[in-house]
Specification:
Elements (H helix, E strand, L loop, with lengths): L3 H17 L5 H7 L6 H13 L3 E2 L8 E2 L1 H9 L9 H12 L4 H16 L2 E5 L8 E10 L2 E8 L4 E7 L6 H15 L7 H5 L8 H19 L6 E4 L16 H7 L2 H9 L6 E5 L11 E8 L7 E8 L4 H21 L1
Antiparallel strand pairs: 1-2, 3-7, 3-10, 4-5, 5-6, 8-9, 9-10
């Protein structure tokens, strides 16, 4: 365990290095920060921090920079994240409230996160498996063809064409629509199969095949893996940090192109709370020079998806964590009200 004084020295080194991009020396620390000790004591503390792997000397200059281990301790010991100002909060709220549908919400969220943090923003679409049914619509397109429209509580809309085994009239279709919604509206997706299993028995024998086909399509829609969609934005922001990546930003860009990698990154976040993965804590080798800040978002205290940012390890962690958390809260509110 570090003493409080050495922890204060580490905090000062992280803050100065993030702000100046220059390795930090003991003289600069004592001039910029009220550490309450002599430069010689600061030098001793820096030597101890280096011995324990929290800071490193990138070249033969007197300056030191934080290591992944140093950033980790800095983040773990953060007492508070940087709150957004009142004008920033109003701007975020106004921008997100202008969204017209779920795609627009996700698109606006990506742009907003990238602008606020000046990092790469990633937003996952709300997961179907964590959603509840708001409404099921059935539309007749032809005597034996029906369009099924599933609307979730998060505003997500899924459409499927159903080819029926026999013609299905408007009257039985309206009956099926009413019976279906009375059973599943407001219920969790996981509960739907049990709620509709005996529904075909409520219809005439000649219509049961079609009812079963419609229900099969509905159940397939509930469990489809294609739900794992996400949107990414702000990749160009990485070009501002070229010197923060050891050789080239190419491995980072290649990793960001792989949706499986990004979904795994976001999947490491618990339903509640925020996750910060620093440098080599990221399993994907291409992201070893980056940090990932992510959090779940949703309504009613339950996360339906994740969002976050990717940037260099030399990151304004308090500010980035504050922005990510605030945006997630606003997106959750908008989904709850939609």
């Amino acid at each position: 365990m570090l003493s409080e004084r050495r922890l204060e020295v580490l905090r000062a080194i992280v803050q100065d290095y993030v702000g100046t991009e220059e390795p930090v020396g003991s003289k600069a620390l004592t001039e910029r920060h009220r550490l309450g000790v002599s430069p010689a004591t600061v030098r001793n503390d820096m030597a101890a921090l280096e011995d324990e792997g929290y800071i490193a000397q990138p070249h033969t200059s007197a300056g030191r920079i934080p290591t992944d281990k140093g950033y980790r301790l800095f983040v773990d010991k953060l007492t508070n994240v940087k709150p957004m100002t009142a004008p920033e909060r109003r701007a975020v709220q106004n921008f997100l409230e202008g969204a017209v549908d779920l795609d627009d919400v996700v698109g606006r969220t990506v742009r907003l996160l990238a602008q606020l943090t000046r990092q790469v923003a990633i937003v996952q679409y709300p997961s179907l498996t964590r959603s509840t049914v708001r409404h099921v619509e059935l539309l007749s397109l032809a005597p034996a063809r029906v369009m099924l429209v599933l609307i979730t509580d998060t505003g997500r809309v899924e459409q499927r064409m159903v080819d029926c085994p026999a013609p299905f009239g408007e009257s039985p279709l309206a009956d099926l629509r009413a019976r279906l919604n009375s059973r599943v509206a407001g219920r969790r997706f996981a509960d739907v199969p049990q709620l509709v299993q005996d529904l075909p028995e409520a219809f005439e024998a000649e219509d049961r095949g079609t009812v079963s086909t419609v229900l099969s399509t509905l159940l397939e829609t509930l469990v489809e893996e294609s739900e794992e969609r996400l949107m990414i934005g702000g990749t160009a922001n990485l070009t501002r940090f070229g010197h923060d990546f050891p050789l080239t930003i190419r491995p980072v860009l290649e990793a960001l192109e792989e949706q499986v990698v990004l979904l795994k990154l976001l999947g490491e976040v618990g339903d509640s709370g925020m996750a910060v993965r620093i440098g080599h804590e990221n399993a994907h080798e291409g992201l070893n020079s980056t940090s990932v800040v992510s959090v779940g978002y949703g309504s009613g205290g339950e996360a339906v998806a994740k969002l976050g940012v990717v940037g260099p390890t030399r990151m304004d962690y308090p500010g980035t964590m504050g922005a990510v958390r605030a945006v997630a809260r606003y997106v959750g509110q908008i989904l709850a009200e939609s």
